[in-house]
Write a structure and sequence with these properties.
Blueprint lengths: L1 H5 L12 H15 L3 H20 L10 H15 L7 H17 L20 H11 L3 H22 L4 H15 L7 H24 L4 H10 L6 H22 L9 H18 L7 H20 L11
Helix pairs in contact: 2-7, 3-4, 5-6, 5-7, 5-9, 6-9, 7-9, 8-9, 9-10, 10-11, 11-12, 12-13
Length: 318
């Protein structure tokens, strides 16, 4: 249990603890471990070693003296493995509100209770949300980890349907790198504010497809085909090209089981995409070289998505 001393948690608080006292101690232990990704990683590695060695000594009577310590470590470990889930960015933002709300309520009643927390989730007040987190949340590291889990899941879903959103993932990585940096580490409150801002950006990004009159998959193709300085008429033709390509790919790929493992079907799909783009992209402004480069991008994306078990043209499961 010496690892707990490094993260400033007194493991003796769990000895013999039951009920609400035990729940509070487990929450504080998790918050201490979530101080950085490195602290969490090292705890999980060491905990797994404890489980392996304790299991090997089950027939040794003297090992039972350490059973409670083992059980306490296991309880914390299991809590760390729990994950929150969310279907879309709107739900992410609602869940973000819920996390902060729950974190405030967990402190018990008093002047700093969650009364007055904004609940109009259709018009989230991000400034108020940041203030609530900074001023009222006690276990900030644990709450921040919950929010990170949500943002990571949402980013994975959005990148799967549209690889052109990689800038959002890079922005997230930089936020977490700054948080984990030993030198000049930003505060947990600053990290929370940046994640809130990023979540807000994801919400705006996810709405762009609808604003363009496109589905998520159509918008993904549209972005892979888009080029700067395209005219308004060219932009509309690009939308139609995206819609047409998606519809035709659905028809082509539906009967093709395991097409990514067969050289002949791979070539068929690659040529099909190129032919469709030659037919549908406006000329000018698209040159032959730009059309071929776009076809290659889209083929690689279609192959990767199909190979990962998400056939292209189907809506990704949340």
């Amino acid at each position: 249990m010496s690892r707990f001393k490094v993260v400033s948690f007194d493991s003796e608080r769990l000895a013999g603890a039951t009920g609400f006292t035990r729940i509070e101690a487990l929450r504080d232990a998790m918050d201490a471990i979530y101080t950085s990704d490195e602290a969490k990683r090292r705890f999980e590695i060491m905990a797994r070693q404890v489980f392996i060695r304790f299991k090997a000594l089950l027939m040794e009577p003297s090992a039972f003296a350490y059973a409670e310590r083992h059980d306490n470590i296991e309880a914390i470990y299991k809590k760390l493995q729990e994950r929150r889930d969310t279907a879309d960015v709107t739900e992410l933002l609602k869940e973000l509100h819920k996390i902060v709300n729950e974190a405030i309520r967990a402190q018990g009643s008093g002047a700093d209770h969650a009364e007055g927390l904004k609940v109009d989730l259709s018009q989230i007040d991000f400034a108020k949300l940041r203030d609530e987190f900074a001023g009222k949340v006690k276990r900030k590291h644990a709450a921040l980890q919950d929010i990170r889990d949500l943002v990571e899941r949402k980013l994975a879903q959005m990148l799967a349907s549209n690889p052109m959103r990689m800038d959002y993932y890079k922005k997230y990585q930089q936020i977490i790198a700054d948080y984990n940096s030993e030198k000049g580490r930003v505060t947990v409150e600053d990290t929370f504010a940046k994640l809130v801002e990023l979540a807000n950006g994801l919400d705006a990004e996810q709405k762009r497809a609808a604003e363009e009159g496109l589905s998520e998959d159509e918008y993904g193709l549209f972005q892979m085909l888009f080029k700067d300085n395209i005219s308004k008429t060219g932009r509309e033709r690009l939308k139609q090209a995206s819609k047409g390509l998606l519809a035709s790919l659905r028809v082509l790929l539906q009967p093709m089981d395991n097409w990514t493992k067969n050289a002949q079907t791979q070539a068929e799909v690659e040529v099909f995409i190129l032919d469709r783009l030659y037919e549908s992209l406006p000329r000018p402004p698209y040159t032959d070289a730009e059309t071929e480069a776009a076809a290659k991008r889209i083929y690689n994306y279609v192959w990767q998505r199909s190979a990962s078990g998400h056939p292209f043209g189907e809506t990704l499961a949340a």
